[in-house]
Design a protein that fits this description.
The chain is mostly helical. Helices cover 70% and strands 5% of the residues. The protein has ten helices and two strands, in the order ββαααααααααα. The chain is elongated and about 60 Å long.
Length: 227
């Protein structure tokens, strides 16, 4: 513990530095915040209408602690959206492999993206009501740009069908992925990402047998971080 001496008349009064103990407190605050967000991802997926008081209990913190980090529902959802945007950008970078056939590139991207989509799929249920579609579109923009570039290359190379413009086909693949994530939300679908990756390639115009072989090969060599 740091001490200094304050001279006052005939007395020397030790003064304790207030810097000691702040680091553990900050670390504890970061830990609480991370635990609250992790719990929110789980509990909001089960019950989009959960109250902050209920979420505090589920997180193992007192109400005052939760409100200290997130003064309202909007602040909590905004933090989750920021977290999702950062994770998505990291997945886009992971899926942006060097020059390789477009079908492999799309499979790699889909497999990289799935853990992020699976982790934050509860945002889908909250998007229209709480976040707004413009915010969701902003989060998805990096993925949208990347997929469109892959589709354009695949169409030029004759790997993907070309009866739809690349941006339109990319938007269709995105909508399908979102729909499949919603099916995971309802419990109708269980997937580690490989089934959706195969479906994505098929929708892009790759024959089913080839799509399965490509996804199996990419999945066997790709180290995708998962929760």
């Amino acid at each position: 513990m740091e001490r200094s001496v304050l001279h006052s008349g005939f007395f020397e009064v030790p003064v304790v530095s207030q810097t000691v103990g702040r680091v553990p407190q900050r670390r504890n605050a970061r830990s609480n915040r991370a635990r609250i967000l992790a719990t929110a991802r789980q509990e909001l997926g089960r019950n989009p209408d959960i109250t902050l008081e209920e979420l505090a209990r589920a997180s193992g913190v007192v109400r005052r602690t939760l409100f200290g980090h997130f003064p309202g529902r909007a602040a909590l959802l905004d933090a989750l959206a920021e977290e999702a945007a950062e994770a998505l950008q990291a997945a886009v970078a992971l899926g942006a492999a060097a020059a390789e056939p477009a079908d492999r590139a799309l499979a790699r991207f889909s497999l990289s993206l799935w853990p992020v989509g699976d982790r934050y799929r509860m945002l889908l249920a909250l998007a229209r009501r709480d976040l707004g579609m413009d915010r969701v579109a902003g989060i998805l923009e990096p993925a949208r740009v990347r997929v469109t570039a892959i589709v354009e290359r695949g169409q030029r190379d004759g790997v993907f069908h070309s009866h739809l413009p690349a941006p339109v086909l990319s938007a269709g693949l995105e909508a399908m992925t979102v729909a499949l994530l919603e099916e995971v939300n309802t419990g109708a679908l269980e997937d580690d990402g490989t089934r959706v990756a195969v479906t994505t390639l098929i929708a892009a115009g790759v024959p089913e047998q080839q799509a399965r072989a490509v996804v199996d090969d990419v999945a066997a060599t790709q180290d995708v971080p998962r929760d």
